[in-house]
């Protein structure tokens, strides 16, 4: 079981992701904005994985990732970026930011579960 922070501003998608990953046995902490995600991270909680929407209110997913790296988290958890933007330039920006993974919306719940498991297994190595 992994402890996962999910920051997604679309409530229906957040619920789908949470239900999918809880069915896989993970514990999910939800945030509805980049600011809320930062508040949760700054409270000192630790996570095995962070899932961030690319475009959110206040702070984007990439801004949250950048702030995570500068706030002294030890270790910085892997980050999966979700986005409806599928342009090559967005993929390059996500990779350059240091995100561990990238998924384009829409995606199937099983595709997401598989990606999350692969990322968690990579961390354990």
UniProtKB/TrEMBL annotation:
What SMART domains does its record include? REC (SM00448)
TM regions (residue ranges): none
Source superkingdom: Bacteria
SUPFAM superfamilies linked: CheY-like
The answer to keyword Nuclease applying to this record is no
Annotated keywords:
Phosphoprotein
Q: Which residues form the Response regulatory domain?
A: 3-120
Entry annotated with the keyword Glycoprotein:
no
Q: Name one Pfam family in it.
A: Response_reg
CDD domains in the cross-refs: REC (cd00156)
Kindly list the positions at which 4-aspartylphosphate occurs in this protein: 53
Signal peptide positions are: none
Q: Output the PANTHER family linked to this UniProt entry.
A: RESPONSE REGULATORY DOMAIN-CONTAINING PROTEIN, STRESS RESPONSE REGULATOR PROTEIN 1
What name is this protein filed under? Response regulator receiver domain-containing protein
